[in-house]
């Protein structure tokens, strides 16, 4: 496939919509309830404009960034995504390989299907994002597995005490545990490439995918309920459990799903290594504010050197630069990377990364900034809308 014809993330998104069965695409692209937060994630970028400088000398532009003493090629990474096997055979491996080849961070979701041990052998340096129960005995067993797998960065999810109300999944018959249905069979027949390359290939080579990384052991097939349930004990998770983890976890510890400055302050006070500002891609609390809108107040609430990361709605290099200017160290992208993997595996993800990096490089030059470390709020101008991040309290 000639990937050069894909010029933007939107090109991959349109192609993925055609490639995937309707209910699979709806699961990937959809949000909770009325998709208010899903839309807000994109609209936030339009409320913020650039204020470029000229005649600055922009030869030799650098977009590399440093995090915890390690330098990455760009301020982007691959966000954690669950059950990606429904989009591509060995999808997590394609995502991780592309990230490693581009020298970018990759976060493995706890709801993924390829065992973390296998993925870590293939692509060392992966991060792990967990959906953790408020139970120290179970947490301890999970930590033992993570340490055996040589995971260095642990990301704890904070915004899933209960399931989001994803009505679009229910209407389309997409349920977890996954239940084959006549609707899926018919939709699969209408998408023969997906039927052969994804469903049949996966079943023939490795059987029904499993929930391999939810807990301390490899779980059941995605057609069955895990013994502990999907969310068993998550409603009990508190900051005290984060402190418990901090005392016992030797690697980097990050909390994901932060939108309130008080929670960011709490993370810094408890000696965590960073936060990911996120509303779970608009898939949990509908009406939760866009992460970009939350970023300025969070930046003001924590020490200047406390690492802030972000995800939610990013589709262009320009979007990435707006977040970096507001204080984000790394911007994680989920759906865009998954669309690339859906179309062409590792090569598709690599093409998405190339597009984003080219946009970042070009826009830095147009902003008159040769080194991304010099990008700050003075390069931004609030838009006319009332929801501009720079005007947020």
TrEMBL record:
Gene3D superfamilies: Aldolase class I. Glyoxylate binds at residues 131, 166, 280, 283. CDD domains: alpha_hydroxyacid_oxid_FMN (cd02809). Keywords: Flavoprotein, FMN, Oxidoreductase. The active site is at 280 (proton acceptor). FMN binds at residues 80-82, 109, 129, 157, 256, 278, 311-315, 334-335. Its cofactor is FMN. Coiled coil: none annotated. It comes from the Bacteria. Pfam families: FMN_dh. One of its GO terms (molecular function) is oxidoreductase activity. Residues 1-385 form the FMN hydroxy acid dehydrogenase domain. InterPro entries: Aldolase_TIM, Alpha-hydoxy_acid_DH_FMN, FMN-dep_DH, FMN_HAD, FMN_hydac_DH_AS. Signal peptide: none annotated. Belongs to the FMN-dependent alpha-hydroxy acid dehydrogenase family. This is Alpha-hydroxy-acid oxidizing protein. It comes from Ramlibacter ginsenosidimutans.
């Amino acid at each position: 496939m000639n990937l050069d014809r894909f010029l933007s993330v939107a090109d991959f998104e349109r192609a993925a919509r055609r490639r995937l069965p309707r209910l699979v695409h709806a699961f990937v692209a959809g949000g909770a309830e009325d998709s208010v937060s899903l839309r807000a994630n994109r609209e936030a970028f339009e409320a913020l404009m650039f204020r470029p400088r000229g005649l600055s000398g922009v030869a030799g532009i650098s977009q590399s960034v440093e995090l915890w003493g390690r330098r990455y090629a760009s301020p982007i990474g691959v966000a954690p995504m669950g059950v990606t096997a429904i989009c591509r055979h060995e999808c997590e491996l394609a995502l991780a390989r592309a990230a490693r080849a581009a020298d970018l961070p990759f976060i493995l979701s706890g709801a993924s299907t390829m065992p973390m041990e296998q993925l870590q052998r293939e692509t060392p340096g992966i991060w792990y994002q967990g959906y953790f129960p408020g139970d120290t005995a179970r947490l301890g067993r999970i930590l033992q597995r993570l340490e055996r797998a040589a995971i260095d960065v642990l990301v704890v999810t904070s915004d899933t005490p209960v399931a989001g109300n994803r009505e679009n999944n229910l209407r389309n018959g997409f349920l977890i545990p996954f239940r084959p249905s006549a609707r899926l069979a018919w939709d699969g027949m209408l998408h023969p490439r997906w039927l052969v390359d994804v469903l049949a290939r996966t079943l023939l080579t490795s059987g029904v995918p499993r929930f391999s990384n939810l807990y301390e052991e490899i779980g059941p097939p995605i057609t069955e309920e895990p013994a502990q349930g999907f969310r068993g004990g998550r409603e009990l998770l508190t900051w005290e459990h984060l402190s418990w983890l901090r005392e016992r976890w030797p690697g980097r510890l990050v909390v994901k799903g932060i939108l309130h400055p008080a929670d960011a302050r709490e993370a810094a006070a408890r000696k965590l290594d960073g936060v990911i500002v996120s509303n779970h891609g608009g898939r949990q609390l509908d009406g939760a504010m866009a992460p970009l809108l939350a970023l300025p107040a969070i930046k003001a609430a924590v020490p200047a050197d406390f690492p802030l990361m972000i995800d939610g709605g990013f589709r262009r290099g320009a979007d990435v630069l707006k977040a970096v200017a507001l204080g984000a160290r790394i911007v994680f992208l989920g759906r865009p990377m998954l669309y690339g993997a859906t179309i062409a595996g590792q090569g598709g993800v690599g093409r998405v990364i190339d597009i984003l990096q080219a946009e970042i490089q070009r826009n830095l030059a147009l902003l008159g900034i040769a080194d991304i470390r010099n990008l700050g709020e003075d390069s931004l101008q609030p838009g006319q809308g009332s929801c501009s991040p720079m005007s947020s309290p």
